[in-house]
Amino acid sequence: QVQPVESGGGSVQAGGSLRLSCAASIGTYCHYDMSWYRQAPGKEREFVSGMNSDGRTSYADSVKGRFTISQDNAKNTLYLQMNSLQPEDTAMYYCKTQIYRRDSHTHICLRSMDYWGQGTQVTVSS
User: What pLDDT score was predicted for residue 52?
Assistant: First the structure.
């Protein structure tokens, strides 16, 4: 089961913090990426932060310095620590698992499939 399950959302005041969790059972693959996206009402879903199996991380400009992505390998869980939350951070937050598989002939590791969680709501009041 690769389908991720998010938790940890809630309602906080501006300046507060939340930690989101994304649990996913990931098998043995040549590579995988896990990332957080968010979508506010009436807006397109946007990238927030990501981490791959090599430990590389990335962040959207809007959350740099405030959000931190991390992973607990023992629990197969991805975290997003969100500090200094602002009203514009209000959105449904989704976890995405990107699976890479090694081609049987060329042995090249290629992106295969993406799996999305159901989302967890984050609401920040001013």
Answer: 83
Environment class of 15 (CB within 10 Å of its CB; exposed 0-12, middle 13-18, buried 19+): exposed
CA angle, 84 then 68 then 65, to 5°: 55
Could you report the per-residue pLDDT of 59-97, keeping only the tens digit for each? 999 999 999 999 887 778 899 999 999 999 999 999 999
The CA distance from 26 to 78, in Å, is 11
Instruction: For the chain, list the strands marked E by DSSP.
Output: 5-7, 10-13, 18-23, 31-39, 46-52, 57-59, 67-72, 77-82, 91-102, 109-116, 120-125
